[in-house]
Amino acid sequence: MAEQPKQIIIIGGSGGIGQALVQALLDEYPAVRISATYHRRGVPFQHERLNWQKLDVRDPPAIQQWSSKFNHVDWILNCVGFLHEDGRGPEKSIRAVESDFLLESIRVNTLPTLLLARYFATALKKSAAPVLAAISARVGSIEDNRLGGWYSYRISKAALNMALKTLSIEWKHSHPKGCVLALHPGTNDTDLSKPFQTHVAPENLFEPSYTASMFVKLLSQLEPNQSGSFQAWDGTHIPW
Question: Which long-range contacts (CB under 8 A, 24 or more apart) does 195-204 make?
Fold first, then answer.
């Protein structure tokens, strides 16, 4: 995909990886305009080519209303993720599974990407090389699951992967020049992973700025035949 993006949307631009992606894309593409969303966090920084929008990704009407403001979009990158809150975290056994926590995981980790695809489909179709990508996780790989546990997070990310794969098949016809993919960022030093960093080797704990730079490189080299893939930050393919 040689053509540089002119309009990029970053969902969750105030989070660790999202904020780093916003900065990396502004640095990489001097002419790009970015629209980024935030929710509970405040706006982390301002830039003349950056517009911020407060958005709750669990609110379908809000996503639909916001999408109506865009006529043309090149890339949509969804960086929102939910793993733990208020003392509740990944389940170690089936005894810990609670319906509200599982459903909230799906509401944040799975459904928003489908809604973004639905409501921004027309704007993306006007791009010469549209991209829709979402941050997934290796733990969402069914084939790679060797440790068990983390039911809600694994389930919601596996569902996200299936949604992206299914969308990529549909968009081969409606968006033939586009690319839909799931992205694995590795373990980054962010609030999402902080409670689980104890046993992570230093060389496997990434700064968000590093991951963002790798993602920008990966995204800039995408071709339509890569649509429907699950790729890590370094470009390696992860089994579904």
Answer: 195/84, 195/89, 196/90
